[in-house]
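User: Please predict the structure of the protein below. I'd like the answer in structure-token form so I can feed it into my own downstream comparison script.

Assistant: Understood. Taking the following sequence of 319 residues as input:
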Amino acid sequence: MKTTTLLFSFLLCVVQSSAQDIRAATFQWVDNNSGVLIENILKLYVDSTLDSHRNSVLVTFDGVDKVLYLNSSEPVEPNIICHTFKNTLFYAGPGMYTHFIEIPFRVGQLSNFDLIENISLKLQPILIIGSFGYNSTPLCNNLQSNITQSANGAIYTPNFTDSEGDSLVFTLSNCDGSGYYIPTGCTINSATGVITANPPAPGLYAFCTKVEEYRFGVVISTTYTDMVMQIDNVTIVSQVSESTGLSLSPNVLLCNDLITVHAQGKAFLQVFNASGKMVLQRDIYDGNRIDLNVDPGVYMYVLQGDNGLGVVRGKIVVL
């Protein structure tokens, strides 16, 4: 019997460094057919070159600290490792359990945040212990694989499993972080969870998927996955502006051409290559002309006004 609402406050128990290594995360509860002893499972996908080597994770819910211990680690893609943390915890019978999970050190240089460094990853799952029989929540096992690049963006096809065969409904939700936005041209299939992404500019993007689990027409859990997705190609050359006082031109140019920046006073320019690596960052003033000094390719830029006032994001194509 189960209806559960979980919202985790999550702290790291052992962190050897503050490297920004987290690329994705998902959480699951597995009922052992008791309705009160429930296995808590957290999967963290990390950049292996930045791995903080956590041995355990501290979880706080209902004012009580609990520890999830490192259970296994396995490579899932080149330079990506999935760490699985587990512990079986006691839940005091039917009811709603509210938790909140915060994982510091999300990978940086994300295109759909106003700030691109020192962002936490947060999950807000909901588990209900009620009158619906035993229930294990759905889990996605391929958060950093099964991403297909094309000339029209990228597609991520998830692999969700639910042991009871309950119905799942998928929606895109906001990631936690300063100025996060779901880019135009990015959608999710509500029946399959497939994310189709063709944003205005290439880069590394974060997406949070809300997964509602239904039984007999009633929601019995709400879980979340949070992942980053590299998008190498898009079909349009555009700029997204929140301030008419900022602009950059041209955004299609030859290797030796200069770009011109217009700003009301001082601005800060950052340019990233297709893999999300920063290739230029500079304070800049109105009318400045800059040689990017980069190879031909597609680049994404963020132009931010002084004191955070106004931001322009877009793509630069170097021929």
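That's the full token string. The chain has two domains: 9-231, 239-318.
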